[in-house]
Amino acid sequence: MTGPAHIFDKPNRYIGKPEPRADAARLLQGRGRFVDDEKLPRMVHAAFVRSPHAHAKILSIDTEDARTSTGVIAIYTGADLAEHVTPYVGTLTHMAGLRSAPQHPLAMDVARWQGEPIVMVVATSRALAEDACELVDVDYDELPAAVDSETALDADTPVIHPEFGSNLAWERDVIAGDIDAAFAAPGVHVVEREFRFGRHTGVTLESRGTLCDYDPSEDQLTVYYSGQAPHMMQVIFSKHLGLPEENVRVISNDVGGSFGIKIHTYGDEIATAAAAKLLRRPVKFIADRFESFVTDIHARDHIVKAKMGITGAGTIVGIDFDDLTGIGPFSMYPRTSAIECNQVLNLTGAPYVMENYRAKGRVVFQNKTLMCQYRAVGHPIAMAIADGLLEDAARKIGMDPVALRELNLMADDSYPRTSATGMKLDDLSHKRALRKLTEIMDYQGLRADQTEARKDGIYRGIGFVSMVEVTNPSPMFYGIGGAPIASQDGATLRLDAGGALHVSSSITEQGQGTNAILAQVAAGVFGVDLNRVKVTTGDTATTPYGGGTWASRGAGIGGEAMLLAAQALKDQVLEVAGVMLQTGVEKLDIRDGAVTDLEGNERLPLADLARTVYYRGNELPNDLNPELIATRHYRVTDFPFVFTNGAMAAHVEVDTATGFVKVLHFWAVEDCGRVINPLLVDEQIRGGVVQGIGGALYEECHYSPDGQFMNATMADYMVPMASEMPDITIAHIETPTKTSVLGAKGAGEAGTGGAPAAILNAVNDALSPMGASIWQMPMTPERILTVLDKAAE
Amino acid sequence: MKAPDFDYLRPSSLDAALAMLAEHDGEAMPLAGGQSLMPMMNFRVAAPEALIDLADLTELRGITVDAGTVRIGAMTRYAELMSDATVQAHIPLIGMALPHIAHDAVRNRGTIGGSLALADPAAEMPALMLALDASIEVTGPDATRMIKADDFFLGMFETALDGELITAIHVPVATPAQRFGFHELTQRHGDYALAGVAIAQTDDSYRAAFFGVADRATRVPELEAALKRQDDMKVVLTYLDQIDFTDDLKANHTTRQRLAGVALTRTLKGMTA
Ligand SMILES: Cc1cc2nc3c(=O)[nH]c(=O)nc-3n(C[C@H](O)[C@H](O)[C@H](O)COP(=O)(O)OP(=O)(O)OC[C@H]3O[C@@H](n4cnc5c(N)ncnc54)[C@H](O)[C@@H]3O)c2cc1C
């Protein structure tokens, strides 16, 4: 058995090295294979008639004219597909009390959000299908809509699912200590704010898409699918279309971004599979940008009333808040839409020592697009509440926000421990991260600059966040609730006759470099050149069974499985080598594609060993039956999640005449345990920060009072763009998790989870000389001007 | 988001193009750079029976100077305007504004004629034409006429075009007596402005054209007169009340008015020497 230290220290290790991604050249040369690149014989195309109303009774559907439109192959209504697809309900047993109504791929009698698919048209081209959609005549009786989450529970608000009696989907209280007594204690200051977090969405470069091919001779459904969790989708297609699980193959080749958008059950995709089965020919559906805006899950949508109590000396005594989350008309299947709020309840204030905590979460239905898990589920809300209040409190008691954090952050040597909400925490480094942060950003220098600039009427602000991120979830996340979502992942390595490795894994690639780190772990642990590793992911027929990529689990769980499998294969190969070389395995190693002695001198090229095994087995003893293939699976056992931590800071300038915010610089110090590839981790964090800046300053799904999505185009919905993005400086602290040999925690969501709070704090720091502050995201020019005006009154 | 079926026509002369336009009797649309028209068709907001591609009309190309006027062919692309020495020398305001119009990819295709014919209230070009006191040369089946920029923009996406094509834009050559200024406020580089203004100052008189603020690019004569009188800025800004400011998701009319004031103030501070 080869020891862990050896893996990381050996001469041709790859773990920890900034290796460029092997697939970058292919993608940049336009040779990626996304769903829309797949073309099959007899393939036809789907388009959907979508509800123009947020809430309406469907009185009748007339498809007469559409049926005779050029190129039309078939038209399906909700009732048509209901005969072939069983409904689904987005609840989980461990989210006690969560309720949602059965959903059909196409609305049945009532449309519950603008954009909900009503009728499916299949035609020989997408353009012809859209022509026919215009000829479908749906007669609606428009109903009053429940749009605003704040009034969703009011008596005179329409109830979206009358059988529930109210629009409440779920609620939960978390209580620790005695918050009322803590706040009432002498010398305790209480700051109180109302936070509003608008809705935004993922805006993936490649929109959702699926190509479903049904072969009746084998009752086989093959789905080319732009998504994150092929095995989960295999179960869902199988279950709801009535196909044996093994007869569904889900293939996710290249995927152009996902961010949590592509991990849910979308009616249009299920309908596409159903149509393929009914028509016995391939059907393709590619969401266009308008469809993406009105059907891809949205994120956030929270209104939070929150208080923090703090002593004059700066000790946080507790947090008390009420979170209201709007999720649209259903809880999304199968992950549910309650997790977002649950994360806020669990994670708020998790970096800080705190005795008293009270949180109430309410999740309500609305006639809007469904809201569900998007990158950094709940995190930006939790971090903005705690760190927003913390900096507000710092201003109140006249203390520096860094000093205040120093005072309240959990000490780096105090783990394992639990948070106020009972989260099990280990291997965290809040204080070291914060110190490193203030060093790399030259905090004192920036403060001096800020003071100088203010003299010239230039308002700059510095804001921080100390954060945790939930990564590497165990079965406690979804599995215990009954969802078909694997918490473990597997990896297989095969040594080929030429001495190359073919590896496969159940985690998936959406552009973040999953395949690259899998190759690095395999090459480094086993002992071949990186360019001799071929990686397969994203195919239920050819990879081990596993959960896929979400919750920042790919590297930590999939990477560990690959490490274990690589060690297992290495042990096998050395056993063969030991026999062939008549040497004890403890005297052998594998380096640079050859079996070597412990000093690294070559004894036997792997190709020679493999050829002997595969071609000339007669040269081996009869009782030696090498397989040269190994599979290992891994799941996190001792902890529900593996937490990471980070400290981030934003430097912004607010133009007080226009309300425009310019982000001047952003810094992130991240502790994601062992860094497998610094290039990829840094870009993950940068990308996450950019999405966090988007949520903080630009991105918002605007709805009219009657539930119309008002800005469903890329011209009106503002994603952050390169010109506006600041330099983002990244530094690391590496505290490997003790839950695995690899020691990697996740890093994919940190930037998105932390950046909004840091930007909010920086803007409020900039506004503080005017006595103004803002607590609503995105912080648009108009909103900033409004708070400035109010302060000037 | 696929356009409905349409015919694609590619005339090789201006006369042929005009004949096609007339033949389709309002059901055909000219195609220039397609940067606005193609998205409108894909959204099915526009559904012309036929597109008449102006790409081969040499009559609509070229930049020439004659008798104190620069004539810019309608099919001149933004990218060509940016790199053209004549434009740089004689119409400095265009050079100041172009970097704010979209991004390279759009500027490589979008044309000056297309922008003016579209008359987007937030577009830069119409405001530039107003400030520069330009004339739009338009040709119909029977005649060519010149329309003053002041008379060309009639409302949101509405112009004085009447079954005609824009053939060229005529801009007076800048004189030593002139100074120019341009400023726009956008949250992201290259977006349509929340408010912006283009100014041409000749001796002590001003032509200040605002864009992104109302249903069309707009001048306010009283405001220009106040500038000429060198009124206090506070007074100048009160004349903005005369604009019927737009309300939309990005800014309500109050914010827009305030931003227009900021844009004006900043432009005046940064006029060319
Ligand atoms: C991402 C993006 C960002 C943009 N940002 C900006 C911006 O910041 N500022 C801005 O001003 N614009 C912006 N635009 C629009 C761009 O400038 C367009 O190119 C311009 O508005 C239209 O020019 P075009 O040549 O593409 O015209 P087309 O799209 O081809 O045509 C536009 C309209 O004009 C008509 N037309 C075209 N030429 C003539 C003619 N010679 N005579 C009569 N009618 C004619 C067409 O029939 C059509 O109705 C942006 C566009 C995109 C895609």
From TrEMBL, chain A:
Documented EC number(s): 1.17.5.2
Residue ranges of domain Aldehyde oxidase/xanthine dehydrogenase a/b hammerhead in the record: 29-144
TM regions (residue ranges): none
Pfam families per the UniProt record, alphabetical: Ald_Xan_dh_C, MoCoBD_1, MoCoBD_2
Keyword entries, A-Z: Molybdenum, Oxidoreductase
GO MF entry, a single one: caffeine oxidase activity
Enzyme class: oxidoreductase
Oxidoreductase among keywords: yes
Protein name: Caffeine dehydrogenase subunit alpha
Species whose genome carries this gene: Planktotalea frisia
Lineage: Bacteria, Pseudomonadati, Pseudomonadota, Alphaproteobacteria, Rhodobacterales
Automatic annotation (TrEMBL), chain B:
GO MF term list: caffeine oxidase activity; FAD binding
Keywords of this entry: FAD, Flavoprotein, Oxidoreductase
Keyword Flavoprotein assigned: yes
Gene3D superfamilies in the record: 3.30.465.10, CO dehydrogenase flavoprotein, C-terminal domain (3.30.390.50), Uridine Diphospho-n-acetylenolpyruvylglucosamine Reductase, domain 2 (3.30.43.10)
SUPFAM superfamilies per the UniProt record, alphabetical: CO dehydrogenase flavoprotein C-terminal domain-like, FAD-binding/transporter-associated domain-like
InterPro entries: CO_DH_flav_C (IPR005107), CO_DH_flav_C_dom_sf (IPR036683), Diverse_Substr_Oxidored (IPR051312), FAD-bd_PCMH (IPR016166), FAD-bd_PCMH-like_sf (IPR036318), FAD-bd_PCMH_sub1 (IPR016167), FAD-bd_PCMH_sub2 (IPR016169), Mopterin_DH_FAD-bd (IPR002346)
Location of the FAD-binding PCMH-type domain: 1-176
Enzyme class, broadest EC rank: oxidoreductase
Pfam families in alphabetical order: FAD_binding_5
Keyword Lyase appears in the UniProt entry: no
EC number(s) recorded for this UniProt protein: 1.17.5.2
Entry-linked PANTHER family: XANTHINE DEHYDROGENASE SUBUNIT C-RELATED
Protein name: Caffeine dehydrogenase subunit beta
Gene, per the UniProt record: cdhB
